[in-house]
């Protein structure tokens, strides 16, 4: 899952990003509304964690713009204003969910996971394919009942492949969904990660390499 965190309190924004990355999410961080719109114009995010009170372009306007452009990513709006009317306004503007500050980080994680499942078609809480089960909320993977320990990046790649439901994902597609914007597109990091993931999943192999196209589970 790829997430954009938009928050002008840099310490909070960076802390949220660190926590989400521990959940095997690829996270980009920006600190104002203008930069947020620049990022959403070129990147496909599953979830945008959006502070409402932003400098430059206000968070409300960012949400309105994404809705008007039919952006596929879900919006989790953060704000220090947690009253009922504030929540109603945020949801009316176009937010898919609303979380008041201060918040429990476990709740933020749960809400991001829940929003990430609201794709088209909708995804179940636990993904299953070829004897493999992947539980994003608890960060656990099993194959035929055996738990398989994965690194956060291996987990992220497997999640992208399982969400694809048998379609081929290019190396560029994996890089876009499982790594943040700081990843070097000219490295072999995708190939190496897929190779180690394939070994950990064991036999019979379930990740296919499609020459010239990408990977399929």
From TrEMBL:
The modification 4-aspartylphosphate is found at residue 51. Residues 124-217 bind DNA. One of its GO terms (biological process) is regulation of DNA-templated transcription. Residues 124-217 form the OmpR/PhoB-type domain. SUPFAM superfamilies: CheY-like. Residues 2-116 form the Response regulatory domain. InterPro entries: CheY-like_superfamily, OmpR/PhoB-type_DNA-bd, Sig_transdc_resp-reg_receiver, WalR-like, WH-like_DNA-bd_sf. GO terms for molecular function: phosphorelay response regulator activity; transcription cis-regulatory region binding. Keywords: DNA-binding, Phosphoprotein. One of its GO terms (cellular component) is protein-DNA complex. Coiled coil: none annotated. The keyword DNA-binding applies. The keyword Nucleotide-binding does not apply. PANTHER family: REGULATOR OF RPOS, TRANSCRIPTIONAL REGULATORY PROTEIN CUTR. This is DNA-binding response regulator.
């Amino acid at each position: 899952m790829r997430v954009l965190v938009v928050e002008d309190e840099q310490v909070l924004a960076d802390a949220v990003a660190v926590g989400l990355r521990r959940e095997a999410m690829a996270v980009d961080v920006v600190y104002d509304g203008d930069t947020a719109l620049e990022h959403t114009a070129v990147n496909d995010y599953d979830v945008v964690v959006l502070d409402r009170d932003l400098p430059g372009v206000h968070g409300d306007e960012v949400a309105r713009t994404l809705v008007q452009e039919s952006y596929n990513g879900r919006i989790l709006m953060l704000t220090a204003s947690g009253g009922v009317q504030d929540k109603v306004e945020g949801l009316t503007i176009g937010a898919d969910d609303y979380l008041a500050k201060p918040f429990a980080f476990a709740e933020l994680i749960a809400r991001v996971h829940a929003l990430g499942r609201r794709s088209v078609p909708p995804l179940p809480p636990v993904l299953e394919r070829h004897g493999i089960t992947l539980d994003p909320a608890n960060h656990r993977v099993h194959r035929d009942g055996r738990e398989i320990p994965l690194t956060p990046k291996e987990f992220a790649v497997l999640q992208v492949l399982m969400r694809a439901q048998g379609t081929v994902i290019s190396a560029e597609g994996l890089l876009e969904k499982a790594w943040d914007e700081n990843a070097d597109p000219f490295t072999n990091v995708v190939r190496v990660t897929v190779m180690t993931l394939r070994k950990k999943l064991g036999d019979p192999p379930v990740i296919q390499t499609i020459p010239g196209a990408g990977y399929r589970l």
